[in-house]
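Justification of resources, computational component.

The compute hours requested in this renewal are based largely on the per-chain cost of generating structure records like the one below. Each record pairs the submitted sequence with a full structure-token output. That output is archived, and it is also reused by downstream analysis tasks.
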Amino acid sequence: MLNIFRITAFLEGISYILLLFIATPIKYFGNDPQYVKMLGMPHGLLFVAYVALAILLRSTYKWDTKNFLIILVGSLIPFGTFYVDKKYLKPLV
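The structure output for this chain reads:
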């Protein structure tokens, strides 16, 4: 389950970066919302999967409230999921 969470975290981070730094500028500066529409749904599904998996794994790995909140907030900050993977998930493997 941890490996699935790590893969989901990686994909969620990539989709967030693409959405923020590629699709959104193209939408507003190039007047082309096609890329936001194309990346929005997969990113949303990956975000929900990330949060759900974090909730499921919290008791298994005994994350305290502080670490659990950092793991959740990592999905809201660009590049945050990569930090979470390196600091919190990779040492568990």
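Helices lie at 2-29, 34-61, 65-73, 80-89. The mean pLDDT is 96.
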